[in-house]
Amino acid sequence: MDDDAYPLGQSATVGADDIAAAWRRELPGVPTHSIPVVTPIWRLAKLLADDRRRFLADQGVDAATLDLISTLRRAGEPYTLSTRELAARCLVSAGAISQRVARAEKDGLVTRGPARGRPKTVPVTLTAEGHGLTDRLVGELLRREAELIGDGDHETLAAGLRELLAAVGARTAQ
Amino acid sequence: MDDDAYPLGQSATVGADDIAAAWRRELPGVPTHSIPVVTPIWRLAKLLADDRRRFLADQGVDAATLDLISTLRRAGEPYTLSTRELAARCLVSAGAISQRVARAEKDGLVTRGPARGRPKTVPVTLTAEGHGLTDRLVGELLRREAELIGDGDHETLAAGLRELLAAVGARTAQ
DNA sequence: CGGTGTATGTTTAGGTCTAAATTTAGATCT
DNA sequence: AGATCTAAATTTAGACCTAAACATACACCG
Fold first, then answer.
1. pLDDT at A11 over 60
2. Which GO molecular function, any one, fits this protein according to its record (chains A, B) (predicted)?
3. How distant, in Å, are the alpha carbons of A7, B91, B96, B121 from that of A3?
4. d(C-alpha A121, C-alpha A98), whole Å
5. What is the DSSP-derived secondary structure letter of residue B15?
6. Which domains does chain B have, with CATH numbers?
7. How far apart are CA B33 and CA A153, in angstroms?
């Protein structure tokens, strides 16, 4: 019996070109030229995110919290942004920021001020502890990331990505 | 009073170059040359994933389930893979596959066979309903994706991404 | 001067993931 | 045969996210 007519055992690494070829075989006529661009982007994002998550877990921090405090740190003095502004810069929903801030506040990394101004606006400010933690982690993280992508020349790749991001951003903005 | 010394109101779109410049200003000496490559990759991945999630939500399907059934569909006859193999191809943990399969099985999209072979191996097979749903959705999804990235020539971008993925993959493999 | 509008922030319901603990079914050794 | 080993699968605990419902505060207008 051909008990091995389908792969139940060993795993094969499937590349983007294999995926595109498989769809052309299974669904002739469907456009597949986006696959060699989109698949590596998703895989790279996942590899980088996983690597960062594992490193941060060792330090007792989660990636969402680092994203929050490093956005505040990067903004410079006085290290304060509104919930709305944080949502826009972190690219997550306002609800997600509300939850992130609650966690970070419990850990003493940020403080929440009283609502103020026209539509009630809540200022979130980095504490000294949050400031120090951010500096320690971001330096190490950027050094790891620089090692991961290597020393080669990524000028043209960066330019291509910037252009694609602008195009996709324009077309997905409703 | 300078009540607007920090941006609590309107949101500015912050590009990768702004982020790199901010870190050079706030943390001199930290390497920032990975940022113009890594940031657009994360943002593109998020834009594409969000667009896909919204489209699928309208169809009553979630992205994780489509990833599962399209991986089985793409494998070709007899549309069967083990849990382990699915985890490797979908790039998620075995536990996540177990949960995805449980949901998809409840919806009648896949069936789980009895364990078999040396280390117990569970075959997961696409049903006729799952087969049809996949074909309907994948065609539409690839057409949307092709529109999003546009008609330009992405040959060199794809090559650069493939090369970077190989390099990062080699360096993150423990 | 009180209703209506509008933008913000918070809460909640539902769903996903990872890591770790647990279960399970053959293989192997004595 | 029985103990032990091993790899796979499942379960569970803990975190996170989005979308939608809800709460809030001020501006504006009739």
1. no
2. DNA binding
3. 9, 25, 26, 12
4. 12
5. P
6. 52-147 (1.10.10.10)
7. 10
The pLDDT assigned to B118 comes to: 65
B123: enclosing H helix or E strand:
strand B123-126
Convert the pLDDT of each residue in B71-81 to its tens digit.
999 998 889 99
Minimum CA–C1' distance nucleotide for B83 = D9
Residues 62-81 of B with CB under 8 A from A: 73-76, 78, 80-81
Counting beta carbons within 10 angstroms of the beta carbon of residue B156, is it exposed (0 to 12), middle (13 to 18) or buried (19 or more)?
Answer: exposed
Confidence band (pLDDT; 50, 70, 90) for B12? Answer: low
Res. A8 pLDDT band, cuts 50 70 90? low
Q: Where are the strands (E) in chain A, listed by range?
A: 80-82, 110-112, 123-126
C-beta atoms of B164 and A143 within 8 A:
no
**Residue A115: in which H helix or E strand, if any?**
none
Q: What is the pLDDT of residues A105-118, one digit of tens each?
A: 999 999 998 877 66
Q: Give the C-alpha distances (Å, rounded to integers) separating B80 from A4, A56, B88.
A: 11, 37, 14
